[in-house]
Amino acid sequence: MQKRKQFLAERKCHLENKRAAIEGRLADKHMPEKHRQYKLELLKKIAEALLQIGNGSYGFCKGCNKEIPAKRLELRPEAEFCVNCQERKERDAQTKNTETRLINLAA
Question: What is the model's pTM?
Fold first, then answer.
């Protein structure tokens, strides 16, 4: 229990620092719009992760509800999915995009 509290405190600190750094970069008026949109989306994920730390649900996969490995959360503290579910989500999105393109070509 104490180990998890320590881990969550570290993740919270890391996320808050990451949020501050991103907010600072958003002040750059020369940032390309696509890059700005990516940073804004990342800020949303960070805010959600901070809320999850507060309510105790941080670190659990939104796909399978299993605990996300600590190593993944250290690398991507805003991660919402375990590696398996993230890969599945990306494959599904890629398949959907391919199907949409084929439908548009056929029209």
Answer: 0.76
